[in-house]
Amino acid sequence: MTSLKMGIIGVGGIAQGRHLPAFKQLENVEVTAVQDVNRTRAEEAAEKFDVPHVFDDYKDLFEKVDAVTICTPNKFHAEISIAALDAGVHVLCEKPMAMTVEECEAMMEAGERNNRVLSIAYHFRHTAEGRLAKQAMQEVGDPLVTRVQAMRRRKVPGWGVFTNKELQGGGSLIDFGCHLLDLALWLLDGPKPVEVIGKTYDRLSKTPGQVNDWGEFDHETFNVDDHVTSYIMFEDGSSMQFECSWAANIKEDHTTLTVSGVDGGLSVYPFEVYQAKYGALFDQTAKVDGGEDEGLVQAKNFVDSCLGQGELVVKPEEALKVSRLIAAIYESSETGTSVRL
Ligand SMILES: NC(=O)c1ccc[n+]([C@@H]2O[C@H](COP(=O)([O-])OP(=O)(O)OC[C@H]3O[C@@H](n4cnc5c(N)ncnc54)[C@H](O)[C@@H]3O)[C@@H](O)[C@H]2O)c1
Known about the structure:
By secondary structure, this protein is α/β, with parallel strands linked by helices. It has a nine-stranded mixed beta sheet. Strands 3-2-1-4-5-6 form a six-stranded parallel beta sheet, sandwiched between helices. The protein is globular, with a radius of gyration of 20 Å. It is built from eleven helices and 15 strands. It has helices at residues 13-25, 39-48, 58-61, 77-86, 101-114, 128-136, 165-168, 172-187, 203-206, 294-306, 316-335, and strands at 4-9, 29-35, 53-55, 67-70, 90-93, 118-120, 143-151, 193-201, 227-234, 239-245, 254-261, 265-267, 272-277, 280-285, 339-340. It folds into two domains: 4-121 and 294-311, Rossmann fold (3-Layer(aba) Sandwich); 125-292 and 322-340, 2-Layer Sandwich (Dihydrodipicolinate Reductase, domain 2). Helix 4 packs parallel to helix 5 (101-114) and helix 5 packs antiparallel against helix 11 (316-335). The model has no long low-confidence stretch (mean pLDDT 97). Bound molecules: nicotinamide-adenine-dinucleotide. Nicotinamide-adenine-dinucleotide binds next to helix 1.
């Protein structure tokens, strides 16, 4: 097989903003079908992106495609992924992999039993800085302390179902923090977490009359976290300080990932390397502007993997590890104790 027929399931913000434009640019991909529970939205997307088939039931779509991208709310990730894999269709599922660890495991099993590609759209790995950092980790030596901050000032997503625990499984951690957790674990080569302590907050977003930059949401029905902190210890003796927020009272948004190791340190955003060399403190940086869009890099890697022409970057077993950590952070906050893994 040298080309791929793609379908998109759930054609809201991320499907139209990232996946459809990316797949439409690839010469070896034909986007043949879309499906959404909102038929009007599916028809509009089909017209906008010149897609020939619109379906009401995702199971019917499987007959027209070799692969799908799943862009529904998190609650449906596992059900639709497993159905697709069982129908012999490769799957790129939006992040997080699913709502629970059990669902993630069932997805992985479905991928293995059907010998189909299953990947998760952890696109921070495909950013220019992320790719460079992965290679530059050799400058760091053994990692000691990793610091992660995925911080937004007053930006609770006011569209979709992001503030609904039933449909999303959580808030800022499972939606935004998951990206940086994934990127950090990937850079660190997937160390085994042994103990996790976490604390979630929702007080700001539960308070009426919030100033919010990303539209309006209902503070009464808001039932997810808007700020989360965690401390994670790994089997190799290294540790991670983690914080994420949709709605912090901070000066400005920032995404920080630094690793301090035995031979040097590294920051991903902006990309910098810190060492001591030639008797001096020695810093290095790189020109990373203007690289290929991460959505396009992600789409290419998925397609190449489906066609047997490249190695998958985001493997399902790695995304499962992210979901295990997320579950442990939530459990620790609920129980008020640390969780041993
Ligand atoms: N990678 C990223 O940075 C990123 C960014 C935004 C969203 N996402 C993820 O993408 C997914 C969708 O987010 P969004 O922002 O596009 O949301 P959205 O609300 O804009 O779109 C979701 C779409 O799914 C449709 N839908 C709902 N239930 C469905 C079902 N059972 N079957 C088919 N369609 C269904 C809705 O009608 C809607 O059109 C979520 O999992 C979210 O976590 C990822």
